[in-house]
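Researcher: I'd like a structural prediction for the single chain below. Treat it as a standalone chain; there are no partners to consider.
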Amino acid sequence: MAPRTPQVEFLWWSGCPSWERALARLRDEMADLGLDPSLIEMREVETSDAAKQEDFVGSPTIRVDGRDVQATDDQPVGLTCRIYRLRDGRVSPLPDPAELRDALVAASAGTFAASAADRSEQAQVEPSGADGKATR
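Model: Treating it as a single chain, here is the predicted structure.
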């Protein structure tokens, strides 16, 4: 069976300077996987009301098949720049490329719903013990 084309949404707010780099990263990951980046559904979030309607937790927000590429937990909705937690424990204004790729691959295979929960659990940072540094 051929891979399916996932629905990819990119929500952004013009007040956040990282949205263009995030979009470029998303397009690159899609192209690398043989997915058509022109199919990204782009939506600019311009007002607080629109942020509430979109359940927008910050710019940029990327959803694959309706699911955020990173669990949003209890993050507040609003016009703000988003902070992503990378797999190595650092924070970034851009989503982790591996997390984007995993979401796209899983959605293409039709398994994103199950894998999103697994990635959310893996994203929890735990202290390593002796040196106190965060590990994944």
